[in-house]
Automatic annotation (TrEMBL):
<dbReference type="GO" id="GO:0008270">
    <property type="term" value="F:zinc ion binding"/>
</dbReference>
<comment type="function">
    <text>Involved in the maturation of [NiFe] hydrogenases. Required for nickel insertion into the metal center of the hydrogenase.</text>
</comment>
<dbReference type="GO" id="GO:0016151">
    <property type="term" value="F:nickel cation binding"/>
</dbReference>
<comment type="similarity">
    <text>Belongs to the HypA/HybF family.</text>
</comment>
<dbReference type="Pfam" id="PF01155">
    <property type="entry name" value="HypA"/>
</dbReference>
<feature type="region of interest" description="Disordered">
    <location>
        <begin position="123"/>
        <end position="143"/>
    </location>
</feature>
<dbReference type="InterPro" id="IPR000688">
    <property type="entry name" value="HypA/HybF"/>
</dbReference>
<keyword id="KW-0533">Nickel</keyword>
<keyword id="KW-0862">Zinc</keyword>
<feature type="binding site">
    <location>
        <position position="75"/>
    </location>
    <ligand>
        <name>Zn(2+)</name>
    </ligand>
</feature>
<feature type="binding site">
    <location>
        <position position="92"/>
    </location>
    <ligand>
        <name>Zn(2+)</name>
    </ligand>
</feature>
<protein>
    <recommendedName>
        <fullName>Hydrogenase maturation factor HypA</fullName>
    </recommendedName>
</protein>
<feature type="compositionally biased region" description="Polar residues">
    <location>
        <begin position="129"/>
        <end position="143"/>
    </location>
</feature>
<dbReference type="GO" id="GO:0051604">
    <property type="term" value="P:protein maturation"/>
</dbReference>
<feature type="binding site">
    <location>
        <position position="4"/>
    </location>
    <ligand>
        <name>Ni(2+)</name>
    </ligand>
</feature>
<feature type="binding site">
    <location>
        <position position="78"/>
    </location>
    <ligand>
        <name>Zn(2+)</name>
    </ligand>
</feature>
<feature type="binding site">
    <location>
        <position position="95"/>
    </location>
    <ligand>
        <name>Zn(2+)</name>
    </ligand>
</feature>
Length: 143
C-alpha cells in the first residue's frame, strides 16, 4: 500500500538524521518536502508512511509538510511554462502543441527542516557533583 512512499521517506529520514547529527541537533520538529505531481509519490500515502519511517528516530515527533508542485511543460510555440493536468499527455493545454519538455512536476526533495540545537553539548557544569563518575571513569584531573 504505502511501500513506495515508505522507501522514499526512509531515504529522506536518513539524510535528515545525518545532517542533524553533524549539527548536533537533538530533536527534529518539522520537515517540509517538495513533491511534484508527477514524482510518483502520493501525498496521502506520504502522510500515512511518515510515522513508520520516523519511528524511534529524533524525527518521530516531527510534523510533515508537503509542498505540492504542479506539473508544467515548456511550450516553444507559446514561449512559456504552462501547467498540465497530471493525467494528460505532454501537450500544451493552450495551443495543443506536443512538448516533451517537462519543466516541473518530478520534484521529490527536502525543502527545509527545523530542529532543536542545544546551546551546550555534553560538558557538565562546574561544581556538579561528579564523585561517582570520577570513581568509575578515572577523570581524576577534574578539580
Ligand atoms: Zn502552447
Amino acid at each position: 500500500m504505502v511501500m513506495h512512499e515508505l522507501g522514499l521517506l526512509t531515504a529522506v529520514v536518513e539524510a535528515i538524521l545525518q545532517a542533524a547529527d553533524t549539527a548536533s541537533a537533538s530533536k527534529v520538529n518539522e520537515v517540509s518536502l517538495k513533491v511534484g505531481t508527477l514524482s510518483g509519490a502520493v501525498p496521502e500515502a506520504l502522510y500515512g508512511a511518515w510515522p513508520i519511517a520516523t519511528d524511534r528516530t529524533i524525527c518521530e515527533d516531527a510534523q510533515l509538510r508537503l509542498n505540492v508542485i504542479p506539473a508544467t511543460v515548456y511550450c516553444s510555440k507559446c514561449r512559456q511554462n504552462v501547467t498540465i493536468d497530471e493525467f494528460f499527455a505532454l501537450l500544451c493545454p493552450v495551443c495543443a502543441t506536443p512538448t516533451g519538455q517537462l519543466a516541473t512536476g518530478r520534484e521529490f526533495e527536502i525543502e527545509w527542516v527545523e530542529w532543536d540545537c542545544p546551546d551546550t553539548v555534553g560538558a557538565p557544569a562546574a561544581g556538579t557533583d561528579t564523585g561517582s563518575m570520577l570513581a568509575t571513569t578515572n577523570t581524576s584531573k577534574l578539580d
